[in-house]
Structures are given as structure tokens and as C-alpha cells.
Amino acid sequence: MIKSMTGFGKAETEINGKHLTAELKSVNHRFLEMNIRLPKAFSILEPRIRVFLQKKISRGAMTATISLDNEEEENILRINEKSAEYYYNLLRDLKRRFNLSDSPNLQIMTAFPEIFRVEKKKWSEEKSWLVVKRLLSVALSDLVTMQEREGRHLGKEILRRLQKIEDKINQIEKDTPKRIYSVRKRLKEKIENLLENRKIDEGRLTTEIAFLAERCDVTEECVRLKSHITQFRRYLKINKPVGRRLDFLLQEMNREINTIGSKATDAGVSQEVVILKDELEKIREQVQNIE
Description:
The chain is an alpha+beta fold. The protein has eight helices and six strands. Helix content is 61%, strand content 15%. Strands 1-2-4-3 form a four-stranded mixed beta sheet. The chain has a two-stranded antiparallel sheet with strand order 5-6. The N and C termini lie close together (11 Å). The model has no long low-confidence stretch (mean pLDDT 84).
């Protein structure tokens, strides 16, 4: 079953006491375009995330966002023992030199910010990847479910319009013999009126009229169009990305319809061609959303 490129998926979990959320958003795009947003703690995982998603998604513009609650709390305050010892000894020497009564205490020591250092809490890359991978899998499943649901809707709409096109083509093909006969008759009458009573080669006249009339025959184009429609329906049932194939078939179908329009000699067919092209354009708009 076809999938739409439009979808949204979300998943949540806990890691090291922190709330972790993954969101996947996808919209239609001619190729695969990926934008990954990560907290600093997981920035090292970006290449793995990109490869993981590329194996699951073949087309569309996707934004993958992973957020970690209270990321700023990942900073840990540590004592810089060397700096603390330096300031302590400095203060003690100062007391001794100037015969001061006070001794270095905690209140005095904390006035020197250099005795503290900030450390980033370290995350295990492998452990983090296992958690993120599971989270992405759940979000991806949610996304794909939405894409498949939208794909079913698109498929029904496309099939309805394909049937309308096929019905028009069958009618054009059915009317072709009568139309050719009518063209031959009109050509013969016009030529006879132009020539009036002049002597002409009836055999040659019949041949030329038949040749001109056959140029109005669109049976071949109708057969090819119906073949494309059959193939189009078959692709709609395939459980893999077919958007580009469908787009190519639409180009071929448009080519055949244009040929029918150029061969048309009566207003009826010309009007049907306008309807066919309109239906084809509506299908094209839907196909732009298919993966």
C-alpha cells in the first residue's frame, strides 16, 4: 500500500532520571531531506540517527527533534583542589605575615570562584544510542501509521479519478470508427464540391481521403493510455516507494492525451481531452504527496 510523505510521530521515555522526547515530522519533497535537532548531550549520535532514518524513509523532508528536559542541570559543580589549596596557603601566609587573627574559613574561601569548576555530565554513547534508537523506532512507527492512513485516502481518490479517465478513454475509443467514417464523408463532400464536375481519379481520391481520415484515428493512443492506467493501479498496491514511478507514468499519460487532442477533429473529442487533462492534473497533485 502506498504511503504519503506527510506524517507525524512522537515518543517519550526516561534516561538517567531525565525525560526524553522524540518527534518526527515529514512533508512532501522531491528527494530525501533530513534536519536533525539534538541536545548537546546527544550530538555525537547524529550520524547514527541519520543512517537509521535513511534506512526507513526514502523520500520527503523530515525534521527529527530529540529534546531532553532540564538539560542545563547536566552541569556538575566540582572543587578545583589545586586552586583551593593555592588560595588557602595564600591566605594562611597572609595571616602569618601580617599577624591577623582570622584564619581562612569556608566563607572566605568561597569568595574565590576559581576554586570551583564546572563539569559536563558524561553520557555513555552506547547506552544513549540504545535508548534513542528505541525511542525513534516508536516515533517512526507512529509516523508510518499516519503516512499509511493518508496513503489509503490518496489511493482511493486517485483510483476514483483513474476510473473517470478510463471511462472517457473507452468512450473515445468506441466512437473512433464512427468519427473516422464521418471525417471521410466530410472530406469527400468538400473535395467533390471543390472539383465540381471535373474528372477525377476515384481510386486516388478514395486513397487520399482514407489516409487523411486515418490520421484522426486515436485507437493506438487509447490502448497505450489504458495500459498506463493498468500499470498505475498495480503500483498503487505495491508496498514500497513508488512516487517517482507514478510521476513518470503521469508524464506518459499526458503525452498520449496531448496526441489525442492534436488528432481530434471535432469539438466533442476536444472537450473530452480538456476533462482528461484536468483529471490528470488533479492526480498529479495527489502523487506529489506519495513517497
